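Why do we care about 3D structure at all? Because function follows from shape, and shape follows, mostly, from sequence. That is the central idea of this module. The next example makes it concrete: a single protein chain, its amino acid sequence, and then its structure expressed as tokens.
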Amino acid sequence: MSRHKKKMTTVPANGGGAVKKEYGALLVVCQFVLLLLLAATTNWRDIHLPALLLFIASLLLAGWAVKVMRLGHFNVRPTIKSGALLVTHGPYRYIRHPMYASLLLGGVGLLLISFSWLRLVTFFALWLVLYLKVRIEEKLLADHFPDYFLYQQRSRMLFPWF
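And the structure:
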């Protein structure tokens, strides 16, 4: 496939398989609570260039991912929507979960502005929640898209260098 062609595959409507919706919903609630805690406990008057650059990178990555995925197909729950597409172009060419990567970049930016050990623990809790969501999604996607294993081999989970 040429460098500029877009590859998409449609998934059957099954709502995400055997993953319990309650567990996925709990992870989403935890994700937003942890992000809110980090944002609410940030001393915004202390913002500095490295944190600002991380925020900008986070917003650019998130915006790019949403544009490529299309807003109507975006899903915060670790399930597969009916008629979902496996998108493997744009940021998804390099990383399989750019939205989660953007949240982590922004979280590091928040941590850099107002560091404390409690905020560091909060950030690692956010990382754990996102990692659990990624693991669920990776299993679901592998079950539904025959080429997902090949996609995993040529892309990274969250960051190109990890």
